[in-house]
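User: Round two. Same drill as before: sequence, then structure, for each protein.

Assistant: Same drill it is. First protein:
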Amino acid sequence: MPLIESIPNISEGRRAVVQPIADELASLPGVRLLDLHSDATHNRSVFTLAGEAAPLAGAILRLYQRAIEVIDLREQRGEHPRLGAVDVCPFVPLEDATMADCVELAKTVAAAVAARFGIPVYLYEEAAASPARRHLENIRRGGFEGLPVKMQEEAWAPDFGPRQPHVSAGATVIGARRPLIAYNINLATDRLDIAREIARTVRASNGGLPFVKALGIPLPDRGIVQVSMNLTNHVETPVHRVFEAVRREAAQRGVEILESEIVGLIPAAALEDAAAHFLKVAGFHRAQILEQQLRAGS
């Protein structure tokens, strides 16, 4: 049966309420919890789930139920933009699944979330009803606090659910997309203006690298800043190219890269490409990887 991945992001990364949700999801039949990443500064947690459409839909609805019970956006604060307790929930095709399968599942789950929990739902990426709603950043602009006014505009009526935000859970964005890499680079400085300048330079919307979305954010608990990115096509714009671009822009401003981090999971091919680049391996191909040959012969 076709396998689908879902990567719901909830607006909580500091309190002990996240792990019980993960434990419950991991116990559900027909669904695998592949990863959980929580970040206190962003105040956000990212779950990675995989399964067939029906059990995966059930798990996502359970996640919404639990998140609504424990997250109140009127009290929640963090560095990451958000408009919902469950901020975004994409579906991604895996083995034998198609993008059409994911679009259908996104619309089914969106209708159920709106009907069951009274939450306004916007569809994005491949499931979007209009070009203006294709990009997540357009829907999220204004955040939770701006929803009451934004939702009264005809252009921002939700695809499902009421015309006003849920009092504590806001709204949510559900859709279907290709695999994405959440990739952050931490800079050895506390100057937020530098991180924001670099983010503006490298992101696609400002004429930078194709398929790169970027924000500059502070990490006050560590006294540094971060260029936080989503890479939406690692084949066309590989991770190492993004790293080098940020390193170059930082060096021009007298700043070094402290470290980088991957949020959630990453395709093996993306790391293989990066390793081949930085090691300057001539004529590298996947058949040279020991584990790849072992899998091929099994």
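Second protein:
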Amino acid sequence: MRKLLRSQTAARLKKLDREARNAARKPENADCIHDLRVSIRRLKQELEVFAEWFEARRLKTIRRHLRKLMDRCAAVRNCDVAIQVLQAAGCQGPELLARLEKERRIAGGTLARKLEHWRNAGRIRGWGHHLRVSRAASKETAEEAARRLLPAMTEKLFRAGRGASQPNSTRLRMHRLRLQAKGVRYTLEIFDLVYGRKTKPMLEALKGLQEKLGAINDCATTLVMIRRDRDAVAAVRRLAGEREAAFREYWKKRFGPRQRVRWKALLSMADGKK
């Protein structure tokens, strides 16, 4: 387990450093901002699930920095999302779009300066020295950790999804399900060497679920940013309704009772065989 965590931590830090550099060079590129956010989430998930394996004081500081960076990224990403949602909803109001584009430029510049400061300070690379796996950590193997964590996480996901996929469900429940789906997916990725290709269909299903729920969340984010424009609000609400229906259909197709049983059985038999 120590070997697995060391390799995963190094890989995720390297990926985060690369995406931070790309976003600093191209703050106007929406894909660069998105990739940076995903890298932050993957590292945060590892540090949350395996917190006991790292030195607590160092871990707390790093997680605080990651949270602040994510907030800066969100200020940029929310503008990108709002513009995309408005276009999908058929809203082309020039004044509204111009305001969002201006906010986006300002937020992008602020993020780029922050990332440049991080690069000059060598912050992300320095974290590699602070995130050393403790020798006093648990003695469990990677297979034992996988069996302990993933079946329970998956059971909670299916239970939450049954409620969130009901026609009368709230967007808050869908948002919480989205966070759970990310947690399961990013944790499952850590145990790739344990499960191998057997979990590829799961990862694909989780990615699709994230996309469906993310599209709904994009509408919710946009509604907050355009709340004073009644026509735009009405159009985005219609789009949100369509996306919620698409999510419910996807859940029914990819996360039914049979899938739940199959997933739980597979995740409970972590044996390192591919």
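The domain at 1-139 is CATH 1.40.20.10 (CHAD domain).

User: Perfect.
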